[in-house]
Design brief:
The chain is an alpha+beta fold. It folds into three domains: about 300 residues, no CATH class; about 110 residues, no CATH class; about 60 residues, Arc Repressor Mutant, subunit A, CATH 1.10.10. The protein contains 17 helices and 16 strands. A hairpin with a 5-residue loop joins β6 and β7. Bound molecules: adenosine-5'-diphosphate (ADP), zinc ion and magnesium ion. Adenosine-5'-diphosphate binds next to β1, β10 and β11.
């Protein structure tokens, strides 16, 4: 751990961060052969001469992988190149039987995109995306889990040839928190487009974090280190925080930051040097002779653009206006595209869609949160929420009764319609009974009556609340509202 640096020392420096994110595409088959692209199969079962690189085997590009790469590129505002080139990235590694990965080098499929993140001052900041390119994955070395793991490494080549996209950001990120936001937004966009499951545990999304520091106001970037093997966004943030301090300490103690790759060790909460610039690979990129240039026609681009869903940020903005939400609630409702779709489909069938949002967020969301449950574990279905919202809207139940019904739903793990049918809450619909209660509240609160009659019409809500309380939540809300106004006006 670097010694704790004084805040005024840290404040002299500005971190510069750029992220490289690898994402596995959710295609049925691999990038250049017909093998299943499937996680969790028995080792070395999804392999063939092409993905093993046996002599004479020829790659054939998977059209679905091109569609997904194009879709992802459009979703992050990239320009898609009409003609891109596959290249061989040569290196030796036991889990790379071909001796090279098919990737893209100087002519990637897409460039010049951006992702917007909230900046520290509350404004929106654009992080540039340099490029998005297509490539294939390598296999996997299994270093432990076997009886003889101390002396042997096993290979599972199922992952060889898995289609990937790599998304490279500009060095526009300035804090570890911004890096975390960038990754969160990127993952959300990719999930919405459906091109990947972005499952970090299974390795479908991997991140390398490049970071340097410079004195504030300096016009040149400092020397960067690349932190590899970071398998959660929280760890990316922690690794960056560690690395920023480490580099500042090196400079402050008169040293120079080395250009190197470093490994994050999450158990120890620090990074270790892995290889220096001298040991860096020279990949000897050259155009892949077995594949023609990739042509993305204007027609294909237009077809693919039609498949773009409404993206999370735009959806939140629309839903905030449509359902009268605050930002936090908009994030809750758009947490996944599937959930947002289910919510909106249900809300459209209700008398008042805003009320559906309200019941969902306050009654269901609140209880789930208190119990530490996920949305999928809710006993109340969307249909149940719509019924509850409609009953409330029609004044057939009071909000107090609604709360009581939801309490039962969560106690007994039952959906709302069943509970409502059984409990059919009592309602006072007798006009004279309600009027008697209103009279009493009016008598007890002459000041409020004065306010109302002086023009402060919102005071009516106070009387409704008081009577509702007196009736233990059983006064018919629609009737009560009507009678209160009549009494106060009359
Ligand atoms: P390399 O040649 O080492 O692969 P690139 O220029 O291709 O470096 O950049 C790789 C990633 O590192 C990009 O995300 C880029 O934004 C970022 N990056 C480049 N230079 C710096 C720097 N000085 N400090 C921090 N990040 C950087
Ligand atoms: Zn294969
Ligand atoms: Mg590079």
């Amino acid at each position: 751990m670097p010694a704790a640096l004084a805040p005024e020392v840290l404040a002299k420096y500005e971190p510069v961060i750029g992220l490289e994110v690898h994402v596995q595409l959710l295609t049925a088959t691999k990038a250049f052969c017909g093998c299943a692209n499937h996680f969790g199969s028995a080792p070395n079962t999804n392999i063939c001469p092409v993905c093993l690189g046996l002599p004479g085997a020829l790659p054939v590009l998977n059209g679905k992988a091109v569609e997904f790469a194009t879709l992802a590129a459009l979703a992050i505002g990239c320009q898609v190149r009409e003609r891109s080139i596959f290249a061989r990235k040569n290196y030796f590694y036991p889990d790379l039987p071909k001796g090279y990965q098919i990737s893209q080098f100087d002519k990637p499929i897409a460039e010049h995109g951006f992702i917007e993140v909230p900046a520290a001052d509350g404004a929106v900041k654009r992080i540039g995306i340099t490029r998005l390119h297509m490539e294939e994955d390598a296999g996997k070395s299994l270093h432990d889990g076997f009886a003889d793991s101390a002396t042997r490494t096993y290979l599972d080549l199922n992952r060889c040839g898995t289609p990937l996209i790599e998304i490279v950001s500009e060095p526009d990120i300035r804090t570890a928190d911004e890096a975390f936001e960038y990754l969160t937004r990127l993952k959300e966009i990719l999930l919405y487009t459906g091109v990947s499951d972005c499952n970090m545990e299974e390795g479908s999304l991997r991140c390398d974090a490049n970071v340097s520091v410079r004195l504030k106001g300096a016009d040149k970037f400092g020397t960067k280190a690349e932190v590899k093997n970071v398998n959660s966004f929280r760890f990316v943030r922690a690794a960056l925080e560690y690395e920023i301090e480490r580099q500042i300490e090196v400079i402050e103690s008169g040293g120079r930051v080395m250009q190197e790759s470093r490994l994050w060790n999450s158990a120890e909460g620090r990074t270790y040097s892995m290889r220096t610039k001298e040991q860096a690979h020279d990949y000897r990129y050259f155009p892949e002779p077995d594949l023609p240039p990739l042509i993305v026609s204007a027609a294909f681009l237009a077809e693919t653009a039609k498949k773009l869903p409404e993206l999370p940020e735009a959806r939140r903005a629309r839903m905030i206006a449509e359902y009268d939400l605050n930002t936090q609630d908009a994030f809750t409702l758009t947490a996944s595209r599937e959930f947002a779709d289910r919510f909106e489909a249900a809300a459209r069938t209700a008398r008042n869609p805003r009320r559906v949002a309200n019941v969902l967020l306050s009654e269901v969301g609140g209880r789930l949160k208190a119990l530490g449950l996920e949305q999928e574990q809710s006993p109340v279905s969307m249909t149940g929420i719509v019924q509850a919202a409609d009953l409330l809207d029609e004044g057939k139940i009071s909000s107090k009764q609604l709360k009581q019904l939801f309490d039962v739903c969560f106690e007994k793990a039952e959906d709302f319609p069943a509970v409502y049918d059984r409990e059919k809450p009592q309602q006072i619909i007798d006009v004279s009974a309600i009027e008697a209660m209103i009279d009493e509240v009016i008598r007890a609160n002459p000041k409020q009556v004065e306010h109302y009659r002086a023009g402060k019409k919102t005071v009516a809500g106070f009387f409704v609340g008081q009577v509702m309380k007196a009736s233990r939540g059983q006064a018919n809300p629609a009737l009560l509202n009507e009678l209160v106004v009549k009494k106060l006006d009359g």
